[in-house]
Amino acid sequence: MNDFYEVKVAFEPEGKSVLVDRGTTILKAAMKAGIGIRSECGGLGICGKCKVLIKDPEIVSDVTEAERKFIRPEDLEKGVRLACQAHILQDGRVYLPLESRTAERRIIDVGFGIEVAIEPLVKKIHLAIPEPSLTDVRADYERIIDTLLEVIRARGDLKDKSEGKGIRIDHELLKIMPNILRGAGWNTTLILREKEILGIERGNTEDQNYGLAIDIGTSKIVVYLVDVNEGCVVGKRFIENPQLMFGEDIMSRLTFAMKSSENLSLLQSVLIDGINEAIEQIIDESGVDKEKIYEAIVVGNTAMHHLFLGIETKYLALSPYVPAVKELVDIKAKELGLIMNERGYVTTLPIIGGFVGADGVADLLATGIYKSEEISMLLDIGTNTEVFLGNKERILACSAASGPAFEGGHIKFGMKASTGAIDRVDIDPETFEVRYRTIGETRPIGLCGSALIDVVAELLKSGLIDVHGRMNQDVNTPRMRKTGKDVEFVLVWRDDAGIDQDISITQKDVREIQLAKAAIYAAQHILMKRMGIKKKDIKRVLIAGAFGSGINLENAIYIGLFPEDYIDKVEFVGNTAISGAKIALISESLRKESKNITRLVNYIELSRDPSFEKEFIEATELPHKDLGRFPMVRRLLMRDRND
Known about the structure:
It contains 18 helices and 27 strands. By secondary structure, it is of the alpha/beta class.
């Protein structure tokens, strides 16, 4: 019998079917069908998030040890399997429960406005070009340049005669230029980027000048369509990074990319396909012609930067973690296949170092701390939290491997901030009853990052965990219970949940949060020590990103994520990465300034700091091993113990 043949998999309730080779995992079959299944570990079988229901056990391979670890025996009997472990052997149907699907995340759009003079690099100039005649036999290109110089000289834009020299034209455009000029009756608009002519359009289209600002995050992508003449956003899209199917964290994707050049190409193509889908939706809604989009500014961490450009990423994952390029990169849109004018340019802002990439430069552009007299701390919290400290004299930067816990990764009931996620939690210290709020006001199906901070803080306040994070099994409540080798505290009983089981926080989950917050706190402390300053010297604390704006600051301080001194200094500044990309799009001078920013910033590799390990270990305690750093929390803890 031939074992190599195709089988048909039908996914419900999506109603999508796909043909795959026999032996393909359900996870890969879903990818081929374009269906998002949660896979924080990249299909390695170590996160347990990709649960599916298969009513006919004959259509898939036998249960693995990895599945027995994450799925209760009674659920295995019902047909619950892990999509990354179950291999399709026959035609059949697979049901995807709500909690296993990737959901559209709630992403805020706030930004941090600063005054920016509008001076786009791409300019559109209307030209009324004299027609050729027997007395004027100048070549077409010569008469374009002559007319162009007359116009910009009349506008006062020509600073010296040399600026009119060296103007070049795209070769593909040159081939069709004569027909365009005559078809337009010599009434045209020139698209000029520095000294390159990108296009020639019929009539006066000066008012139709658009660009894209794109922020590629590890888990989300933000795309803005910007009218660069006016500096305003005319359309936007927030999408999940389609690379999530290959793993939620950067290292999972880099490991996948290292296996073959085909894998690297796949990561690039799915990323660009996702961005293109977002662009298509924006232009459909706005009515903007893609041919009128001449530039794109792209930012992201170093890994996302390399994967977007298709650059070998192997050496990012190996010590000393050196990027292939740090400078600003310009590339023709047609080389990447981005939906825009193919003769336009895609530009990635410079990289700072390590995993602090072009998004870090954008953060600094948007907040302006590199021009400030005051010392500021800027944190962009995510899977890799970027931390900046300094002012116009000097800025230190580092990347803290905080892990995916605050994004819901490695947490039993963790999820992103999407519909059904609990985002606020309060626990009564006397009765241990739990009050919570969900996004979308629906029945809860999991916990997002802001809720996880609340839960750990509330457990600590209520004596349900100690300063070491250990759960107190002596409390008299049915919510605290032992499950196999783990201990958990039930937050939502099954009857009130949107899934068919109790929603809880486990001892392992608490440890994950301790590790994440310890990495972020230790990074802040080491930068302060390297800068030679005290917490009181920091005048502003800027917390960027969607996660930051959703947290309860007091609870974040209570568990030791931030120092107490921050309480009156914190500003939630939204997505500064996309704001910085937009600024670079509409301001030629600030785009050039991004190069100077990288020279001002000194990147610190935390793993090579001799005090990092000690700082990290001490910061794993709640709020910290040295309670002298948290006098207010210490007083509250002592009060609660005495009560």
